[in-house]
Every structure is written in structure tokens, then in C-alpha cells.
Amino acid sequence: DADVTQTPRNRITKTGKRIMLECSQTKGHDRMYWYRQDPGLGLRLIYYSFDVKDINKGEISDGYSVSRQAQAKFSLSLESAIPNQTALYFCATSAGGGTDTQYFGPGTRLTVL
Amino acid sequence: GDSVTQMEGPVTLSEEAFLTINCTYTATGYPSLFWYVQYPGEGLQLLLKATKADDKGSNKGFEATYRKETTSFHLEKGSVQVSDSAVYFCALSPSSGTYKYIFGTGTRLKVLA
Q1: Residues of chain A with C-beta less than 8 angstroms from the C-beta of B2
Q2: Does residue B56 contact residue B65 with C-beta atoms inside 8 Å?
Q3: Buried b (16+ CB within 10 A) or exposed e, B10-19
């Protein structure tokens, strides 16, 4: 089984709808991250969490919110989806430390019409 | 601020050709440097890393050397295979030991049989 799973893998929704993307990990890591990938822009950090009680905004958090339900679960919500939130979303985890390796989920492709 | 610049793609090579993907960075101190690879339909996975100047990271025939004097971490492989076709991301983790990864925009490699 994959160490980091994301659901759904693909989602098409309409402008104004609320969407939740879910991430689960079995690596036992404290740190979890949500990224967005757009063509030509690489990965940009939306939110990150160092433990269940520690949640922080990344560089592009506007329009998004997160919930860390447990060490293993980190959800990303779009309260009112808009077309420019169409992108590939990745969850990642890491153990921590300066040479931290990040472990990524398979991604969720979200299309907002 | 910290940044990573990598060559634009796509890069198209014939099988068994030599590969170089350039990556340069801007950062204070001594960041850790990484190459991640993204195969079609999958999340990113760590390919190799280097944590201090002159370190060489290597994996699956790929190599990259941490060059402090030129602030570079170029990815090389002596003989590429069709199965190497993917998107390659250069990234850094600042020396301050914070969470934050800075990713390059990615370089798409296509290897033709």
C-alpha cells in the first residue's frame, strides 16, 4: 500500500462549490504539507502542519483552508471554488530536520468549471 | 529570498544519450539540495540529495554535485533510457532548518527509442 494516499484522484466541480481533498499517511511523520502544481510554475506551498496543533499558511493560502484531524490525516478545503483553482494538488509528509526528504501522494487533479 | 532556477524543457533525447539538466540556486548559508522526479500520473519522489558543498548525490545512474562556488546542482546521467522520461524538479531546503522547500519549475525529459 502507498505511504501517502489522496482522495479523490480526480474531481470536476463548478464555481462556488465547496470541495474537500483528503490526505492520509502511514509513515508516522509529524509534518504534512499541501502543494499546488501548475504548468510552468512548479510546486507552490498552500499550507503546512508540523503537528496536530500547529498549522501554518504557505505562500498561496488565500481561498484555501485546512484541517489536521490526526497525525495521519490532513485535509484541504476550497470553501468556494473558482476556475483559477484548477490545478494538480499534492499532499506530502516529512519527518523533519534540515535534510528532510518529502514523500508525496499521487495527486488530485481538480477542475473547476 | 531563496530561489531555484532550472532549465526549461522539454528536453528530448535519444536512448543512450547523455543527459544534463541545469539547476542553480540562490540561498544564504548552506542549503540542502534535492532532485525529485515525477513520472506520468504519479507524485514526486526523491531521486537524490546532497547536504553540503562538494557532496555528490547519486541514484539509478543519475548524479549531481553540490557546487557552492557556482551555486549549482546539475543533474547528469551518462546513458538515458525510455523509462527515464519524466519531469525532474530541483529543490532546496534552507540551512536555517525550516520546513520550507523551494522547488524549481520542473524540466520535462522525453527519451525516444
Answers
A1: none
A2: yes
A3: ebebeeeeeb
